């Protein structure tokens, strides 16, 4: 865990040395997407492996394992694809059509 955190500290330090604001913004955008996936992955893994031993419901263990095994790989492409402007615009249009009142 220490090495992962240390590597992100070095990444942020390198990003802050980029001279252009646009370059920093694009780089942070990429890193935030990646960091989100990493936090979700390690968060669920930590819950599974660090929970105390004892009488637990099998349903709880199954739910956590399913979340860890299925949710993270499913979420990863969604998070990374949200960086695409065309996809963002398509999602916005879809929500606007669905939730805006119909004009007669």
Automatic annotation (TrEMBL):
Keywords: Cell membrane, Disulfide bond, G-protein coupled receptor, Glycoprotein, Membrane, Olfaction, Receptor, Sensory transduction, Signal, Transducer, Transmembrane, Transmembrane helix. GO terms for cellular component: plasma membrane. It is a multi-pass membrane protein. Residues 1-23 form the signal peptide. One of its GO terms (molecular function) is olfactory receptor activity. It holds the Pfam family 7tm_4. The keyword Cell inner membrane does not apply. Residues 1-80 form the G-protein coupled receptors family 1 profile domain. Its main location: membrane. It is found in: Cell membrane. The keyword Metal-binding does not apply. The chain crosses the membrane at residues 33-50, 62-80. PROSITE patterns: G_PROTEIN_RECEP_F1_2. InterPro entries: GPCR_Rhodpsn_7TM, Olfact_rcpt, Olfactory_GPCR1. This is Olfactory receptor 10H3-like. It comes from Puma concolor (Mountain lion). The gene is LOC112852512.
